[in-house]
Design brief:
The chain is built from 20 helices and 9 strands. With 643 residues, the chain is of the alpha+beta class. The strands form 2 sheets. Strands 1, 2, 3, 4, 5, 6 and 7 form a 7-stranded antiparallel beta sheet that branches. α1 crosses α20, α7 packs antiparallel against α13 and α15 packs across α16. The protein starts with 14 loop residues before the first helix and ends in a 22-residue tail after the last strand.
Length: 643
């Protein structure tokens, strides 16, 4: 029976005790309406009840609590506090789900562990990326300087800032080959750097330089007839040291330039990177595989010459740094490894907590969807309703955690010198850690959204995103048309339109107002008059359209969205928000309206008492304005934690 579940007033109790109990019950109901959880009593009951209450059919007890017994001897307050209605329980669960960490702390004294963990993770990941960056740029500077030094040593007439040199005559070609050949065998005497040969032949002779050249099997013009065989052949020869600058292998008739495709001079050198000789950072030994490439593939009378270098980390012979302590070296190296291990552990814990939050969000969304489907007054769930339960910030943090873990593993491998291709590990590690630290710092915007002044900016971007994407589709179509047109028409006469990639970069720079005058000047009247006239119309039209129209519309979309949000003070409510903000008695059936009227005076009196602490507005109960909660007044009503 229903009465068996209710607390009845004992007949032997004094009127004074009965009055005190009645006052405490009224206070409990009043506090339940003021609580951010929906009802405090509901939460206490919820923690003791089975999690499958909402998935099963309504029990007689729940039906009794919703339908309000007509027994005149029972107090309506006791009926409300005895067992909560499933509708109010669902409201409390959803409302608690969308609270931010500060509200949850006020409601349940639940400490924001995930918030503290994310702050610690941001600090650790930032320190890790700084340590990695210093080591990375030290290596990059060392390799770039060595490549520049080798260009000066092996490319004749090389000047700083050039990618390479160019050859236009036969004598230049052979002079460049002879110069590189001689420089290789006297590298120890002429170079300032610590260069050496990889392996000595017969104990004292350096390994020979290799000369490879590829050519077509047949080709040439005879009696105004072109003879050509596209089959490519390649020959390689070893270049021995010169004797009194006499080159016995490379002569003026070595190559048939009419069929020659390319010439390559291949050799290897070794060097050492001292790194200022720190006690905890031992020197690294490198092997440089160098290739001097003469490119004659186009056969246009111009042969570019480039020096290509590939570095490989090699094992240094055992040595010692005098004055250094081996114990200090080991402590510093192990500390760096432990630090990376701590970062991996923190990111693993963060990944687990975020994954658990996503799982719980989906679980609650499924329960809410079932509840909405069974309630005739509510609409069924859509995909966007499910998406509202799952915070995209958690997915962002999970991606950053995975990238940080992978990047940290590569960093440990680099520090322990696991791979001989250290540069490849550096490239992969920098990619993972770079994207990870970007996502981690973007995740800070989530915590700024808890404050009104910052949240309105984030909400503006969120609400304006669909319009911006549609706008970009139209703008990209216009941009693509101008790009292809400029490439085809102006490309032969302007180096900024020579390729599609360069054309796109040039047009994008012009949108930002970069280098406009030089773009006009380089098309002089000496170009075909029709092309010159078209270039003026083309450039003026593009600049006017994109700078004065497209950019203005883009700014206008964001500005209009910001004004609407600022005037409305909140986003349009979804069906979920409307459900949790609906009145307490909303959704009761018509046949129970009489029992609702029994509780109405008590509810009205409770809300009237609560006017001094909060106001029940259109979008839910506003936060307290009392002196003990001044900081909470800064929290945006629309910002949620969704944890």
């Amino acid at each position: 029976m229903i009465s068996g579940h209710r607390k009845m007033t004992s007949p032997v109790e004094s009127p004074k005790n009965e009055s005190a109990n009645h006052y405490r019950e009224r206070s409990a109901v009043r506090d339940s309406f003021l609580s951010n959880l929906g009802t405090v009593v509901e939460e206490n009951h919820l923690s003791k009840s089975n999690n499958s209450d909402l998935s099963n059919e309504d029990s007689p007890l729940e039906q009794a609590s919703c339908e309000q017994s007509e027994t005149p001897t029972l107090n309506p307050i006791q009926e409300i506090t005895s067992a909560p209605c499933p509708r109010e329980v669902m409201k409390a669960r959803i409302q608690y789900h969308f609270m931010n960490p500060l509200k949850k702390f006020r409601a349940r004294r639940r400490k924001p562990w995930k918030l503290l963990l994310q702050i610690v993770k941001i600090v650790l990941v930032t320190v890790q990326i700084c340590l990695f960056g210093f080591d990375r740029f030290s290596l990059v500077t060392f390799l770039e300087n060595n490549q520049l030094a080798l260009k000066h040593l092996f490319l004749k007439d090389y000047k700083n800032g050039q990618q390479g040199v160019e050859v236009y005559t036969r004598s230049q070609l052979y002079n460049y080959l002879h110069y590189a050949h001689e420089q290789y065998y006297q590298i120890r005497d002429v170079a300032l750097g610590s260069y050496g040969y990889t392996k000595m032949v017969n104990g004292s002779e350096p390994p020979p330089m290799i000369l490879c050249y590829s050519y077509y099997a047949a080709g040439g013009i005879e009696n105004n007839t072109c003879i050509f065989n596209p089959r490519v052949q390649q020959d390689c020869i070893n270049l021995k040291p010169t004797f009194h600058h006499e080159h016995m292998t490379i002569k003026n008739d070595t190559f048939n330039l009419g069929r020659l495709r390319d010439v390559q001079m291949i050799f290897s050198l070794k060097t050492i990177n001292l790194k200022d000789v720190k006690a905890w950072d031992r020197p690294n030994c490198y092997k440089f595989d160098v290739q001097i490439f003469f490119d004659n593939l186009k056969h246009d009378g111009r042969m570019p010459v480039q020096l290509l270098m590939n570095n490989i980390l090699s094992e240094c012979k055992k040595g010692e740094i005098k004055g250094s302590s081996q114990l200090t070296t080991d402590i510093i190296k192990e500390t760096l490894v432990v630090f990376d291990a701590i970062v991996i552990f923190i990111c693993t814990v963060s990944l687990f907590l975020c994954g658990r939050s996503v799982y719980r969000s989906l679980k609650l969304a499924m329960k809410a969807a079932k509840f909405f489907k069974e309630d005739p007054l509510l609409e069924d769930f859509t995909f966007w309703d499910y998406r509202e339960f799952v915070s995209l910030w958690f997915l962002l943090l999970m991606i950053s955690d995975c990238l940080t873990i992978i990047g940290s593993v590569y960093k440990v491998a680099i520090d322990q010198r696991v791979s001989i291709r250290k540069d490849d590990y550096f490239n992969v590690c920098s990619l993972f850690l770079g994207i990870a630290v970007l996502l981690v710092w973007i995740g800070l915007l989530r915590f700024l959204s808890y404050f009104k002044n910052y949240n309105i900016l984030l909400v503006t971007l969120k609400l304006a995103t669909p319009s911006i994407l549609r706008f970009f589709v139209c703008a990209c179509l216009l941009f693509a048309g101008f790009m292809f047109c400029g490439w085809v028409v102006l490309g032969p006469f302007h180096h900024k339109f020579r390729t599609l990639t360069v054309t796109a970069e040039c047009l994008y720079s012009m949108i930002n107002g970069d280098d406009l005058f030089n773009t006009y000047v380089e098309l002089t009247p000496r170009t075909p008059i029709l092309t010159w006239i078209f270039s003026k119309v083309y450039l003026y039209t593009f600049i006017s359209l994109f700078i004065y129209v497209v950019l203005s519309l883009f700014i206008g979309i964001i500005g209009d969205t910001y004004e609407r949000i600022r005037d409305l003070r909140h986003l349009p409510e979804s069906k979920i928000k409307k459900f949790i903000h609906e009145p307490a008695n909303h959704g009761r059936s018509v046949q129970h309206r009489d029992s609702v009227q029994q509780t109405a005076p008590i509810v009205s009196e409770t809300l009237a008492t609560a006017q001094t602490r909060g106001v029940n507005g259109k979008h839910g109960t506003n936060l307290s304005t009392s002196s003990q909660d001044p900081f909470m007044n800064m929290i945006s009503v629309e910002s949620t934690g969704a944890e």
